[in-house]
Design goal:
six-stranded parallel beta sheet, alpha/beta, 4 domains, 18 strands, Arc Repressor Mutant, subunit A, Rossmann fold
Length: about 675
């Protein structure tokens, strides 16, 4: 078998057509379970096989997890040449561009300082909250609404000036938005949304930067294109303006991120923008049975705004879709547990083969109680990301203040970590002095003798911290490729960071392990950076210093949409997850719960456009199932105040073909024969 055959082996005709597409523009409509990622990776391998330098290929996906999967798969196919393919998210790509052009940004006035500092998601939220309070936005719901609006405006490149004719109810939100933008600019901060908008401004402003990057990217692949916002979509056109070779891959029926600014119409209307673009179809579903695929097709046929394609499966017809009608959520949870126990008892399935999917996190409460009471192991997919853990954030803050001593947020975080006797009162005095004298916290801490009411021991502790920071700065900036691994261990050692933990305590042992993991990540970073520097294709224009690049990667990992960076997929546990977190995953048996009007679809879905997105969410949930799908609806549900409220079945249930359903349920509080046989469904 020659190398071309090896790359294309196992692809069907439609997948092969995608993998061998070379020059020009294409949009690939890839349905659920169609082997999209497999085909995408084969196309990258095929381009390299044709002699395209790996560094001229850029592929972006929606999350770092998806990006890692693409890179790993390409490595499996062609080995080390894949290491130089630029695979990441739009945010990581933009960060590469920004890092290599900080002086240009400063020269054009797009950055107020010569060195930019990344504002993490938590720091960003905290500052927005401060500005909310400034303008009288104080209750939690209003603060969340403000943060949501600010993110939406930023994702759509909407400036405060563009909002002059906005409704009066947005007035305070706009003021908070304006203050937040000015705060970031004056302090040299770049947040998650700025990475995109600032890059777009740079490409529009500086022709030399545009030419450099558009000539560097010969082939551009965009995975999950249905989730692109307007800024990302415009960025794609600028970045491909020289070679004009791009491929969009996605499924408009899986677009769920309107609340983040995603605009599925960019994908749907692409033909109007680029009439010559080729449309390629991946319609065969390899994951699900015919029944599941046909039922999900029937569901989404009720959406008007969609691209034309018809998914199909060549698997067996399979089980009907089991629709369970429950008197309330307690009985719903009992039914699910009984069914799971029956399947596991049959010996054909393990606990990890099940997922329970819901529209919103609060719906899992009763199910968790039932699973716990029966000793059924489960995992709720809303755990803390590795980079979101306190000790990891603390080390990241140390790295940030070493890289940029004017990063007040980072210094305020670690000035008393480990404890140095710097309480909130002392920190407030330092902040006030800094504000009055227009100094950074770092500069202010060099003048503590000018501030009254700070103990001598506290001053000495802060002075020692500043000396440590300076020593670390002298080390890391001695040359542009100094070891970040050594620096991380230097911080831990010099600050006695480990002294705050008790190894005999389980939680502290975990924290110590997390620090070891940071050290390991830094070592891997050093090794990869050295490999890149030794490569003939290494481009120094993308390179600043090792610490800046490492910090950028750390912050990106935190906010790239990976709600769970820890992969517990090998644990033998039932997985509980929201619809949004279930994207890209699959299980043999899936329960979709809470199918009631006002729940799924959400009561917040007021327009037909909103309902269509909710319906797409139902489509995503259904197509996670490989073999067996359950859907359930409660006739009554307890809401706030413990009030039992009568519920109407979701419209989505009536949009499923009756011929594909088997109704299980309760009548007058008595289990029907179908419900009582939940444990034996696996034998049907």
């Amino acid at each position: 078998m020659d190398s071309t055959s090896a790359i294309l082996d196992g692809l069907n005709d439609k997948q092969r057509e995608v993998a061998t597409f070379v020059d020009g523009k294409a949009i690939v409509l890839a349905g659920a379970g169609s082997g999209k990622t497999h085909t995408l990776t084969r196309r990258i391998a095929y381009l390299i096989h044709l002699g395209v330098p790996a560094w001229q290929i850029t592929a972006v996906s929606f999350t770092k997890k998806a990006s890692r999967e693409i890179k790993d798969r390409v490595l499996d196919v062609i080995g080390s040449p894949a290491l130089d393919v630029k695979i990441g998210t739009f945010h990581s790509l933009c960060m590469r561009i920004l890092l290599s052009n900080q002086q240009v940004l400063y020269r054009h006035g797009l950055l107020n300082q010569e060195t930019m500092t990344i504002l993490t998601e938590d720091d960003s939220s905290a500052k927005i909250k401060d500005f909310c309070f400034m303008f009288g936005i104080t209750d939690d719901d209003s603060i969340k609404a403000c943060q949501s609006k600010l993110n939406y405006w930023a994702n759509n490149n909407i400036s405060p000036d563009d909002l002059k004719n906005s409704p009066e109810e947005n007035k305070d939100y706009i003021l908070a938005y304006q203050e937040y933008i000015m705060y970031k600019y004056n302090a040299g901060y770049v947040d998650y949304n700025d990475m995109l908008s600032l890059t777009l401004k740079l490409l529009k402003t500086d022709e030399e930067v545009l030419n450099t990057w558009s000539r560097r990217i010969k082939y551009f692949l965009v995975d999950e294109c249905q989730d692109l916002n307007n800024v990302q979509f415009e960025l794609m056109f600028y970045l491909t303006s020289h070679f004009e070779n791009y491929m969009l891959i996605g499924d408009d029926l899986q677009s769920l991120y309107k609340f983040r600014g995603a605009n599925v119409n960019n994908m749907i209307d692409i033909k109007n923008i680029e009439p010559e673009i080729q449309t390629l179809l991946l319609e065969r579903n390899y994951r699900s049975t015919q029944t599941i695929v046909q039922a999900s097709n029937s569901l989404v046929s009720h959406n008007i705004n969609q691209l034309e394609k018809v998914a199909y499966s060549e698997r067996e017809k399979g089980h009907p879709i089991y629709a369970y009608v429950s008197p309330d959520e307690t009985k719903e949870a009992d039914f699910i547990c009984e069914a799971i126990q029956g399947f596991v008892a049959s010996g054909q399935y393990s606990y990890k083969d099940f997922s329970i999917i819901y529209r919103a996190g609060w719906l899992s409460r009763q199910i968790e109680l039932a699973l716990t009471s029966l000793g059924i192991p489960f995992d709720v997919q809303n755990g803390t990301s590795f980079y979101d853990r306190k000790e990891v954030k603390d080390i990241a803050a140390y790295l940030r203040i070493i890289q940029n001593p004017t990063d007040d947020i980072a210094l305020a975080r670690i000035v008393n970590v480990p404890k140095r006797g710097v309480g909130e009162g002392t920190l407030d005095k330092i902040k006030m002095y800094a504000l009055e004298n227009e100094l950074s916290l770092y500069a202010t801490m060099r003048h503590l003798n000018d501030i009254k009411g700070i103990r001598k021991t506290t001053k000495e502790a802060i002075a020692s911290l500043l000396d440590t920071i300076q020593e670390c700065r002298e080390f890391i900036f001695a040359s542009p490729n100094q070891s970040v691994h050594y620096l991380v261990n230097m911080i831990i050692r010099k600050t006695n960071f480990l002294d705050q933990f008790d190894p005999s305590k389980v939680e502290d042992e975990t924290r110590i392990d997390n620090l070891a993991e940071i050290s390991k990540i830094a070592l891997s970073f050093d090794v990869e950076l050295q490999r890149q520097m030794d490569s003939d294709d290494f481009d120094k224009l993308e390179y600043k210093d090792s610490l800046t690049r490492f910090i950028a990667g750390t912050a990106l990992f935190e906010v790239d949409g990976d709600t769970n960076s820890d992969d517990d997929s090998e644990d033998n546990k039932v997985r509980l997850t929201t619809v949004h977190s279930s994207k890209g995953l699959e299980w043999p048996i899936v329960f979709v719960v809470g199918l009631e009007e006002g729940v799924f679809p959400s009561r917040r879905s007021e327009t037909e456009e909103d309902i269509e997105e909710e319906r797409r969410g139902m489509y995503v949930a259904m197509t996670r199932a490989k073999d067996i799908l359950f859907v359930s609806y409660n006739q009554n549900r307890y809401f706030s105040g413990n009030v039992l409220t009568e519920q109407k079945p979701s419209r989505f249930l009536s949009e499923l073909p009756k011929s594909h359903l088997k109704i299980l349920g309760w009548k007058a509080g008595v289990a029907t024969n179908e419900q009582s046989s939940a444990r034996t469904i696996h034998t049907n």
